[in-house]
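Collaborator request log, item 7. Partner lab (contact: R.S.) asked for a structural prediction of FadR family transcriptional regulator to inform their binding assays.
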Amino acid sequence: MNAVNKARGTASDRLGNVVLRPVRGHHAFEGCVEQLATAIRLGAFSYGAALPPERELAERMGVSRATLREAIAGLRTAGMVRTTRGRGGGTVVSYRPAIPALGGSPGIADRREQLLDSLVYRRVVEPGACYVAAGRKLSATEKMLLTTSLAEVDAAEDPATHRQADSRLHLAIASVTASPMTIEAVTEVQACLHDMLQAIPVLEVNIDHSSRQHRAIVEAIIAGDATKARRAMEQHCDDTAALLRGLLG
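Returned to partner:
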């Protein structure tokens, strides 16, 4: 495995771990399915990635191994993972992201108000996450997570891969806040954003703008400039919101 792929694998492992959290409420099975499916759709666990060992995953999500097995079985039925038994076996992601505007987002019209409101929520949450991340003394590992995630967005070869890489970058930024509640909030808004972006075509001009904004955000966070990082993310959120409101009506 070369250095780039190794760094990518490490980044994906870290993101998969940080976006999963103890399931709350009495519906452990449904909560497990929701969290795992969201992590897979957003690319925290990308195509071909192995899920963590069963014991580790159950402990992280605060559920029994029996409940976890039922949730994974549900994901297998949905075609999102495949499982092999025996020595060297495990559960691997088989979900491939759909091409935006072709794969579609079922039921998006019925959720229009909720999804558009999530853009307001995002404008509060993600700039704040950047401010906090830039204000921390980041480790070399955290800085590498950011730069690797940014490079993956720029290197994406097709719209579907780009969409997942974009989500991973935003999750990476949330993860270096070291705030579980912030990570949960960013994961929530990215899930809503994913549904909306899947419903519109990929526009190259917008991709170019986003790439420059992503780079400015990451550079400001690594430089420790909290105000600049927050403002860059505010501009990024505003531009994306304008595009979505215009195209979704």
